[in-house]
Every structure is written in structure tokens, then in C-alpha cells.
């Protein structure tokens, strides 16, 4: 039986090709040139030391090793499209100026594609750069992944950084330090240091060791950061948590937020669940939540909640409508429209409209006071007002 055809291109030589029915062996630093538009190889392409191809290249499989004396001849450069039935394995660098179609492609250092990629898996020891329209199940790099154009990718991971431009849809993303996305839709994202979405974003679960920053219009199901969560434009959220602070520059609507120090919105902040901060919860206009709690300050033009708890020495500032308000020791509040108000020792309340008011010793109640049910006051409570029992409380 005759052996399969094998064509050899000597190192540092230049050869024109059209079709190779068997394997193609390319020497170090050689250049192959398509006689027409495409070189078609029926078998495998083997290379040691890198090579160049001017024109489109089609093969069953491609492997390139760096060999000894690695210098500038370690890269595989395809000036056109590259298509393989099976995998591509390059020990140094793979550059494709056209479109890449393969099952799997890997490079020891860098893998770059200029005009689109269709593959199951793309990986590189250092850096992956994909431009054009990209459809890949898995992309990974030891240091950096850069994406441009339109992407539909299952998972992306980088040891250090992910940079995404254009629009992309991802099942999961992971970076050791920083992830920066433009317009995107991501089901799950994690970053060792920070996650940034510069454009409009639809996010599932996002976590970062330091910060999550969202600059465009966005929705996020769950977000957590060791230090801060920030949003520059209108946002809808599920559950957010930050070790230090959560800041919204526009209106924010969602479920629940917890922060070690503060929660702040320069617009309105409306939550269906709980809002809890170690120091303060603030909104410029409207603040709503099922349960609102802060160590020192809760402030908004209008505040609505089922229950509000102001901790020791804290202040509740704004027009408040709630089912229950608790003022701990030395806390202060005014303009309360509530079902029940509990005032602990040395707390102060002014202008209260409630069904029930409970006052401990040394707590001070003053201003305009109206109630429908009862006032329970301990002996040393200070009521510096003339409470008026009414049948119906004012709306505001």
C-alpha cells in the first residue's frame, strides 16, 4: 500500500502551494503562499519553529513546536482565514488575520484572531485577543483575555484581566484581578479585585473581592463586593451586599441591600426587602423598604417602610410613613406617620401621628402629637406636648 503523500517545505524558504493531499511539514521560519486564495491540506500540518502563510489555510490538524534556539521564529502567522477539522496546537504564538474555525486552538503564549472565531475552546498561556464575531464555548488565558466586536461565549477566564468591547453574552466570566465589560449579558461573573460594566448590562450573579462598578443602565440579580458596589445610571437589583458602601447616582429599584458602612442614592431608592447599613442609609428623594436599619442616620425627603430601626444616637430625617418605628437610646426623629412608635430611653421624637406610642423613661415626645389607640409612658418619660386622641390619623 502506498504511503500517504507528504510535502516538505524547508526552513526559511518560500513556497507556493494550492493543495496537499497528505501531510504538510513546514520548516522553521518558512513561508507558504497560496497560488490562488486557499491552501488545502488533506492531512496534518506539522511545524517546528514557526511559519507564515499568505492566504487562507485549510487542514485536518495543525501543530507547531518552538524547537531549540527559540527566537523570532516561534510564531505561526496566518494572513487569511484558518480552518481545521480537529485541533490547533502552537507552543508560542498564533496570529490569524482572518477568520478562525476549529474545534480547539491553544497557544503557549499568545493567540490572536482579527476577523471572527468559531470554536469549542480557545486558550493561551499568556494572552488571548479575539476580534470580530466570536462564538466559542470556552476561552481561557493565563494572564489576559481581550474581546472586540460581538461575542457569544460560554465561559471566559483569565489569570489577571478580562477586557470586553462591543456586545457580548456570557454564561460565566472569571478573572484573578479585574474584569472590564462594555455592553453585556452575563449569568455569573467573579473577579479577584474589581468588576466594571461600562455600558448597558444585564447581570446575574456578580462578585468581586474589592468593588463592583456599573456605569450604564443595568439590571443585576445578585452583587457582592468586599468594599463597594456603585452604579452611575438607573439600576434594578435583586440582592446587593458590600463590605463598606453601596452608592447609586440615579434611581435604584430592587429587593435588598446590606452594607458595612453606608447605602446612598442621589435619586430614589426603592426596595421590596431590607435595607441595612452599619452607619447610614440615605436617598435624595424617596426611600422605601420592608425593613430599614442604620447605626447613625436614615435620611430622605420621603421614607416608607414596614419597620424602621434607628440605633443608639442615630437620626431619622424626613417625612416617615411606616408600620413600626423603633428609636433606640438617644435616637431622634420627626414627622412620623406610623402605626406604632417605640421610644427607648433618652430618645426624642417630634410631630408624631400614630395609633400607639410607647415611651420609656427619659425619652422626650414633643411638637404636634396625635394618636388613635393609646400612649404607654413610663413614669419618667417626658411628654412636652399635648397629645390629641383622634378617630383618624392625617395622611400627611
Low-pLDDT ranges: none
Helix content: under 10%
Strand content: over 45%
Distance between the termini: 98 Å
Structural class: mainly beta
Count the beta strands. Answer: 44
Largest sheet: 44 strands, parallel
Rg, Cα atoms, Å: 32 Å
Sum up the overall morphology in one term. Answer: rod-shaped
Number of helices: 0
Average pLDDT value?
96
Descriptive notes:
With 396 residues, the protein is mostly beta strands. The chain has no helices and 44 strands. The chain has a 44-stranded parallel sheet that branches.
What's the layout of helices and strands?
Blueprint: E1 6-9, E2 14-17, E3 19-20, E4 23-26, E5 30-41, E6 44-48, E7 51-59, E8 61-65, E9 75-79, E10 82-84, E11 87-90, E12 93-96, E13 100-101, E14 104-107, E15 110-113, E16 117-124, E17 127-130, E18 133-141, E19 144-147, E20 150-158, E21 161-164, E22 167-175, E23 178-181, E24 183-191, E25 194-197, E26 201-208, E27 211-214, E28 218-225, E29 228-231, E30 235-242, E31 245-248, E32 252-259, E33 262-265, E34 269-271, E35 274-277, E36 280-283, E37 286-294, E38 297-310, E39 315-327, E40 332-343, E41 348-359, E42 364-377, E43 382-384, E44 388-389
Parallel strand pairs: 1-4, 2-5, 3-5, 4-6, 5-7, 6-8, 7-9, 7-10, 8-11, 9-12, 10-13, 11-14, 12-15, 13-16, 14-16, 15-17, 16-18, 17-19, 18-20, 19-21, 20-22, 21-23, 22-24, 23-25, 24-26, 25-27, 26-28, 27-29, 28-30, 29-31, 30-32, 31-33, 32-34, 32-35, 33-36, 34-37, 35-37, 36-38, 37-38, 38-39, ...
Amino acid at each position: 500500500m502506498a504511503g500517504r503523500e507528504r510535502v516538505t517545505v524547508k526552513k526559511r524558504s518560500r513556497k507556493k502551494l494550492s493543495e496537499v493531499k497528505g501531510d504538510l511539514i513546514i520548516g522553521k521560519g518558512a513561508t507558504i503562499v497560496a497560488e490562488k486564495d486557499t491552501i488545502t491540506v488533506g492531512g496534518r500540518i506539522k511545524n517546528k519553529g514557526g511559519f507564515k502563510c499568505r492566504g487562507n489555510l485549510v487542514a485536518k490538524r495543525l501543530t507547531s513546536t518552538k524547537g531549540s534556539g527559540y527566537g523570532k521564529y516561534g510564531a505561526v502567522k496566518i494572513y487569511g482565514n484558518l480552518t481545521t477539522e480537529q485541533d490547533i496546537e502552537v507552543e508560542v504564538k498564533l496570529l490569524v488575520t482572518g477568520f478562525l474555525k476549529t474545534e480547539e486552538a491553544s497557544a503557549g503564549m499568545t493567540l490572536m484572531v482579527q476577523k471572527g472565531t468559531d470554536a469549542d475552546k480557545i486558550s493561551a498561556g499568556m494572552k488571548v485577543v479575539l476580534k470580530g464575531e466570536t462564538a466559542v464555548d470556552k476561552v481561557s488565558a493565563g494572564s489576559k483575555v481581550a474581546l472586540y466586536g460581538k461575542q457569544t461565549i460560554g465561559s471566559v477566564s483569565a489569570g489577571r484581566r478580562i477586557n470586553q468591547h462591543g456586545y457580548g453574552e456570557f454564561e460565566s466570566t472569571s478573572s484573578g484581578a479585574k474584569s472590564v465589560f462594555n455592553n453585556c449579558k452575563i449569568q455569573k461573573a467573579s473577579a479577584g479585585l474589581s468588576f466594571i460594566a461600562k455600558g448597558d448590562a444585564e447581570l446575574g450573579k456578580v462578585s468581586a473581592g474589592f468593588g463592583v462598578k456599573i456605569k450604564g443602565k443595568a439590571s443585576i440579580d445578585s452583587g457582592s463586593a468586599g468594599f463597594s458596589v456603585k452604579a452611575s445610571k438607573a439600576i434594578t437589583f435583586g440582592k446587593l451586599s458590600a463590605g463598606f458602601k453601596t452608592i447609586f447616582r440615579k434611581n435604584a429599584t430592587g429587593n435588598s441591600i446590606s452594607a458595612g458602612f453606608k447605602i446612598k442614592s442621589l435619586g430614589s431608592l426603592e426596595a421590596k426587602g431590607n435595607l441595612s447599613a452599619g452607619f447610614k442609609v440615605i436617598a435624595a428623594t424617596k426611600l422605601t423598604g420592608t425593613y430599614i436599619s442604620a447605626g447613625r442616620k436614615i435620611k430622605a425627603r420621603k421614607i416608607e417602610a414596614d419597620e424602621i430601626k434607628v440605633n443608639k444616637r442615630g437620626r431619622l430625617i424626613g417625612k416617615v410613613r411606616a408600620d413600626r418605628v423603633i428609636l433606640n437610646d438617644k435616637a431622634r426623629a420627626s414627622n412620623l406617620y406610623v402605626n406604632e412608635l417605640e421610644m427607648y430611653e433618652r430618645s426624642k421624637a417630634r410631630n408624631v401621628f400614630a395609633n400607639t406610642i410607647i415611651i420609656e423613661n427619659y425619652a422626650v415626645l414633643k411638637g404636634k402629637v396625635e394618636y388613635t389607640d393609646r400612649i404607654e409612658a413610663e413614669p419618667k418619660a417626658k411628654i412636652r406636648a399635648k397629645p390629641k386622641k383622634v378617630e383618624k390619623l392625617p395622611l400627611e
